[in-house]
Each structure stands twice: as structure tokens, then as C-alpha cells.
């Protein structure tokens, strides 16, 4: 800006000088030269003015570009901040997921261990299965009871004693909760327990009572006649014919009916253990 102002000053000085030359009687050549100098300075001034205008426009454009870049940098800073926050959240979520996964793996390991302990019962003709996402010891009803009865047969007591001994002598199993569930086939029952609900419930109660009984022999000596398990860990329920393992509630073959006449010892999972137990059996 100072440069073109100086040129204006020089132009003004030359104009004064040219007037002075004409007033002092200088030659025509000198006058023409002065005019040419003035024209050149004017052209230079116009060019300087144009450059100044262009510089101002460029300056304004550069300022806008700088403002745009500052805005983008600010947005980028916010974006980076959000990215860091999201990354931190993702890292926390991943850590929680890995901890939960380890917890589930530990649960599966514990249930595999429980199943391996209960599998000892298969030698006594019992099944250890997963039903309704629970670990179940299935006891054949025809071995335990005569048809329509709730009194244990000698072979039934023998099997239940083996079950009780395995549970009682295992530090893990002896502290777990079990539910004794009675089940019948679909055939109607009209005995003293009124219906299949009553029969299944009384059979479940009979099994429970035997498992927790601590009575000795007639002389009060020797091993308990029952299982001597802790009654705090046992409950009983009767499903009648409503929970068949073979056939349907309405359609069952004779073989289906035999399978459905049963008593189950259902290992009760803790709330923290509510996972898909089928994974531990590969089914």
C-alpha cells in the first residue's frame, strides 16, 4: 500500500515539475519527455492499483481459507475426541465381554465336572441327561415302584442308596440343591392318590424321604437305612403325565409309557449358571 502511495506522490511532483518547465520556457522535447514520464508513472500507478486490488481479494480469500481450515481442524479435534471416547467404550465393552466369556467357560467346566461325577450312576442303570436346560438324573419308575404304588421296591432302595452315597461323598454335589420330580405315563389313574398328579407327587415325596432318611437298623447301629442327605437341599414336585420324555401327552407307545414312568433328580442351577448346558454334551 505504501508503494503505490509513493508513486502517487512522484506523479504529483512530476506534474508540478512539468508546469514549472512550461513556465520557465523549457524546450518542446523536454516537455514531451516529461509527458512520457507522467504517462509511464500513471501506467505504473494503474498497475500498482490493480495489484493492490488483487492482493486484497487474495488476502480476503486466504483469510476465508484459513477460517475454513480452522473450522475443519476444530471439527477434526472434536471428531478425534469422540473417536477416543468410542475407542475407550469399545475397549471397556470388550473387557467386559472377555470377562463374561471366561465366566461362562468356568461355568461350563464346572458343569462338565458335575456331569462326570454323576456319570458314575450310569453303571447302576441310570441316565444323566440335560432336560429343560437342567442336569437331570433319571430313575426308572418300574424299578422303584410297583404299578400304581408309592412304596419303594427293594431294588429301588438299593439304587437310591447308591445315588445318595455318590452325592453325599462328593464335596461339590453334596452342597447343591436338587428337586425330586415324579412323572407318570398317560394312562388314567384312579387309586387312593386320585389321579396321576397325586401319584407322581407321592412317589417324588417317597424318594425324597428315603434320600434324607437317617434311621438306623432295628438295633440302632450300622449304616443309615436311608440316604442321609441334607434335607435343606431337597424339594419335591409332581408333573403327572404332563412332562413326557417319549411320545406326547396324548400319544404314547408301550415303550414310551415305560420311559415316562420315572422319577428325576433335577440339579438346580444358580442364577449365574443359566447358560446353554447342551454345549457341554455336544448335543
Tell me what you see in this structure.
This protein is of the alpha+beta class and 283 residues long. The protein folds into two domains: 2-81; 125-280, OmpA-like domain (60s Ribosomal Protein L30, Chain: A, 2-Layer Sandwich). Helices cover 55% and strands 10% of the residues. The protein is built from six helices and five strands; from the N terminus they run H-H-E-E-H-H-E-H-E-H-E. The chain has helices at residues 2-24, 28-118, 141-144, 154-168, 196-212, 254-260; strands spanning 127-131, 134-140, 178-183, 234-238, 262-267. A five-stranded mixed sheet has the order 1-2-5-3-4. A hairpin with a 2-residue loop joins strand 1 (127-131) and strand 2. Helix 1 (2-24) runs antiparallel to helix 2. The longest helix is centred in the N-terminal third of the chain and has 91 residues, at 28-118. The chain is rod-shaped and about 155 Å long. The relative contact order is 0.10. The model has no long low-confidence stretch (mean pLDDT 81).
Task: Describe the structure concisely for a colleague.
The protein is α+β, with helices and mostly antiparallel strands and 283 residues long.
Fold topology:
Blueprint: H1 2-24, H2 28-118, E1 127-131, E2 134-140, H3 141-144, H4 154-168, E3 178-183, H5 196-212, E4 234-238, H6 254-260, E5 262-267
Parallel strand pairs: 3-4
Antiparallel strand pairs: 1-2, 2-5, 3-5
Helix pairs in contact: 1-2
Amino acid at each position: 500500500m505504501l508503494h503505490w502511495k509513493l508513486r502517487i506522490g512522484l506523479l504529483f511532483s512530476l506534474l508540478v515539475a512539468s508546469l514549472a518547465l512550461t513556465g520557465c520556457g523549457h524546450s518542446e522535447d523536454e516537455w514531451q519527455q516529461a509527458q512520457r514520464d507522467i504517462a509511464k508513472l500513471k501506467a505504473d500507478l494503474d498497475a500498482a492499483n490493480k495489484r493492490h486490488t488483487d492482493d486484497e481479494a487474495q488476502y480476503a480469500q486466504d483469510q476465508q481459507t484459513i477460517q475454513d481450515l480452522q473450522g475443519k481442524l476444530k471439527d477434526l479435534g472434536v471428531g478425534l475426541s469422540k473417536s477416543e471416547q468410542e475407542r475407550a467404550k469399545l475397549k471397556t465393552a470388550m473387557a467386559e465381554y472377555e470377562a463374561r466369556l471366561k465366566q461362562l467357560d468356568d461355568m461350563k467346566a464346572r458343569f462338565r465336572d458335575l456331569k462326570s461325577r454323576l456319570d458314575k450312576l450310569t453303571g447302576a442303570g441310570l441316565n444323566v441327561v440335560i432336560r429343560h436346560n437342567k442336569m437331570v438324573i433319571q430313575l426308572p419308575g418300574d424299578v422303584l415302584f410297583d404299578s400304581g404304588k408309592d412304596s419303594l421296591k427293594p431294588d429301588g432302595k438299593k439304587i437310591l442308596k447308591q445315588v445318595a452315597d455318590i452325592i453325599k461323598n462328593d464335596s461339590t454335589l453334596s452342597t447343591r440343591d436338587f428337586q425330586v420330580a415324579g412323572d407318570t405315563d398317560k394312562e388314567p389313574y384312579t387309586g387312593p392318590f386320585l389321579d396321576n398328579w397325586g401319584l407322581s407327587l407321592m412317589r417324588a415325596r417317597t424318594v425324597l424321604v428315603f434320600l434324607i432318611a437317617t434311621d438306623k437298623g432295628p438295633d440302632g447301629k450300622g449304616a443309615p437305612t436311608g440316604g442321609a442327605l441334607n434335607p435343606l437341599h431337597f424339594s419335591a414336585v409332581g408333573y403327572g403325565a404332563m412332562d413326557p420324555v417319549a411320545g406326547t401327552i396324548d400319544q404314547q407307545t408301550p415303550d414310551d409309557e415305560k420311559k415316562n414312568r420315572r422319577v428325576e433328580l433335577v440339579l438346580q442351577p444358580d442364577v449365574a449358571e443359566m447358560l446353554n448346558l447342551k454345549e457341554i454334551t455336544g448335543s
